[in-house]
Amino acid sequence: MKKFTNDHRARVTKMLIRNSFTTLLKQKPIQSISIKELCEQAGINRGTFYSHYTDLYDLRNQIEEEMLEEFNRALEPLSADGQLTQLQITTEIFRCLKNNSDLCAVTLGEHGDKAFALKLINLGRERCVESYLKYFEHASPKKIEYFYSFVCSGCIGLLQKWLDDGMVIPAEEAAKMAEDIMLKGIGFLTEES
């Protein structure tokens, strides 16, 4: 029972630290945040912070790594000859983004880690190009690369709008919207809502 209590306490503490960190990152760059300020915001002492992280960059890296793992799991079916449809995979990606909405808001914001955003985009590019080459047999890899770049920029805009609206529509609906826009282009606007 004691291990469960300690694990739960550690998860709650890490959640408090993460929430405070992303709140501060929305206001200013990481270089302008102090550990003292973060600890005050989280309601913890410095020793508690240092029992989990070496510094703010370690904190950021651990948060980003957790999201990367989750994002990677959402993309896994693209590598397999799996039974999931593109829409189901896109839905899993949008769920991952919603589960990490605090980090997404920061990453897309003024003080975000642009290298992390690029990592996510490149990870998606590798998996999607591989999948699209199988699905669209007559399309060249270069054409698929251009398609991915175009779609990726649109999905980032859609994600930003979804975040700005408080992610009130379900991940499934946001994913369906993204898929419909990708597959139907402007024809998406002619469908009844």
Task: Give me the secondary-structure topology.
Layout: H1 2-27, H2 35-42, H3 46-52, H4 56-79, H5 86-99, H6 101-108, H7 114-135, H8 141-164, H9 171-184
Could you explain the architecture of this structure?
- The protein has about 190 residues and is mainly alpha-helical.
- The protein has two domains: about 1-55, Homeodomain-like (Arc Repressor Mutant, subunit A, Orthogonal Bundle); about 65-190, Orthogonal Bundle (Tetracycline Repressor, domain 2).
- Helices cover about 75% and strands about 0% of the residues.
- It has nine helices and no strands.
- The chain has helices at about 1-25, 35-40, 45-50, 55-80, 85-100, 100-110, 115-135, 140-165, 170-185.
- About 20% of the residues are buried.
Characteristics:
193 residues, Arc Repressor Mutant, subunit A, Tetracycline Repressor, domain 2, 9 helices
Quick summary of this structure?
The protein is mainly alpha-helical and 193 residues long.
